[in-house]
Structures are given as C-alpha cells and as structure tokens.
Model the fold of this input.
Amino acid sequence: MDVKEILEHHIIDHVWSVVPAGPVGLPVSKHFLMIVLVAALLGAGLPLLRRSRSAGLAPFRSMLEALVLFIRDEVVVENMGKKGARYTGYFCTLFVFILGLNLAGMVPFGSTATGNLAVTGGFALCTFLLVNLAGMREQGVVRYVSHLVPAGVPVWLYPLLFPIEALGLVTKTFALCIRLFANMIAGHIVILSFIGMIFIFGAVDPWLGVGVTAPAAVVLVLFVSLLEIFVAFLQAYIFTFLTAIFTGAAMHPH
Done:
C-alpha cells in the first residue's frame, strides 16, 4: 500500500455493502456506521446519565446540566428571544450530535462522519427547514415571505431583491455545510500528510525517514491532534450558534 492509498483509506468513505431497501439500496459505509453508533450511544447514554443517582456520575450530570443551560441561555435565548427557548432541545441535540461525530474520528479505527459533504449537507438541510418553519410559525407564511425584502425598499426593486434574499437563505446554510466539512477533513489530511512524509523520505533514505523525519512528524501529529480536539468542540459550537442566529433573524425580521 503506497502513501496515496493510506491517505485515501482514512479520508474517503468506503462502502462495505448495500442492504436492500425497496427500489433503492441502503449503503453501509464507515460514516454510516459511525452515525449509527454515535446516535445509539448518545440516545441511550444521556437519558441514563440524566436519570442516574450515582454519586460517581454526579460530575458528569453537572457538566450535562451546565451544557444545557449554556446553550439555552447564551445561544438560543440570546439570539432568538424568550420564545426561542422552546427549541432548546433541538439545539442541544444538534451540538452534542455534531460534537460526537467530530470526536469519533479521534478514536482508533474510527472515522469522522462530518468530513463527508452528504452528512454536513444533511445538517445544513435541517437548519434550512428550521429557519423557514420557525419564521413562518412566528410571523405567519404571508408576513414571513413579505419580510424577506427589507421594509422601505422601493416597489420597483422588489423583483430584483426578492430572488437575491431568497437565494441568501440557501447560501447561508450552504456555507454552514462547507465550513463544517472543510474544517473536519482538513485536520485529518494534515495529520496523514505528516505521516506520509515518513514513508516519502524513507524511500529516499531509510535513515532520513526514520532518524530525522519520523521524530519531527510525530511531534507535529501530536500537536495537530490536540488542535483537532479543540476544533471538534469549536465547529460544533459554531454550527449551533450560527443556526440560532439565522433562526432568530427569521423569527424577528426587525
């Protein structure tokens, strides 16, 4: 296996089999498996943690409570108003699920599902639906559509501005999709590139690859790995925070 195959094996989503599901087969791949495992772990573990009365798990229950309160008070209510508190459950689920998928790639033999455009596109689609449905729920369908164009704009500009503003709804959520995908896959590419340098220089001179390149590559890989853990938390927060901002803007056009 050459360096190119090593890199592709850890970055590309490999399909193992296709399960028949009506006229369209359901592919079972690394990223699909990680999504199922993370969803099952969170779906079963968090309710058990919340209901547990074990003294040993008390710090983890406190951390979970602090996380929920932070998302509710500093992310949801801060950007969507008090009426936005009803969406706290969704935003907590969004943050924890994205964070779990981000960190899954740091586990041995794991894979970062958020390094797949199809996965981040699914999250972006959920954000797009939430933004529009929350806006229509708060303002009504007619008022929501009419408020896409700012008030006070001359009538003759409406045919020009309305398509632009409508397209803006799509581009904002599309940017969320690309941002999460690019940040999560970039770290893996950098790490695997450093590892690949050992084999590249080792092919030229074994001593140069093992004696010189390997120690430097290991230090750089450890640094980038720690940076990736920070990025995993940061990107989950940014996606959740921007979703709250877009939803709040749709609910309160002023």
About this structure: The chain has one domain: 3-251. Residues 3-251 form one domain. DSSP finds eight helices and two strands in the chain.
